[in-house]
Amino acid sequence: MNDVFKRKLFGSDVSPSQWKLPVTKEAKQIKIDHIQVRNNIARCIVKNIDVIIEAAWPPERIDLQTELIVAISKCRSAMELLTLHRELTEEECDQFQEFIDVFYEKWINIFGDEGITNYFHMLGSGHILYFVRKYGCLYLYSQQGWEATWHVSGPRTGGA
């Protein structure tokens, strides 16, 4: 996994990054520690999560790997809509919730109830869509918190 991060996410085969995956060595087992990074690194990880999933998932469960990649892809597409700096059209609102519905169903199929966080609940239950329809562009109300972790196309410029 360290090589995946160094050569595929943050560098290349010719010029690997110096970043190291935090690990703990316990007896004969190596475990990945909590990864705490700056926002630009977190965005790179989210943008390239497919590469991480492909490297980390057991090959005998390719069906779950594929389902997880599709789920993440739908969530990423939904977050791209949600983080636009404008009000969404009705069609975009509907598309947002369709992306989330597919994500939510696949996520629960893979991880069960243990995989549902408060934020995933807010998305899957339609709470976020309710607020988008009621208040319009949520970016105008908050530039902090979990919204910032999902924007994958680069740093924001300008603002409300």
Gist of the model:
With 160 residues, the protein is mostly helical. It is built from 8 helices and 2 strands, in the order αββααααααα.
How would you characterize the overall build of this protein?
- The chain has 160 residues and is mainly alpha-helical.
- It has 2 domains: 2-56, no CATH class; 61-150, no CATH class.
- Helix content is 55%, strand content 5%.
- It has 8 helices and 2 strands.
- The protein has a two-stranded antiparallel sheet with strand order 1-2.
- Helix 3 (49-56) packs antiparallel against helix 4 and helix 4 runs antiparallel to helix 5.
- The longest helix is centred in the middle third of the chain and has 22 residues, at 90-111.
- The radius of gyration is 18 Å and the shape is globular.
- Mean pLDDT is 85; it is low at 152-160.
Distance between the termini: 40 Å
- Helix and strand content put the structural class at mainly alpha
Q: What is the count of β-strands?
A: 2
How many helices? 8
Features:
single chain; 160 residues; mainly alpha; 2 domains; two-stranded antiparallel ribbon; 8 helices; 55% helix; disordered C terminus
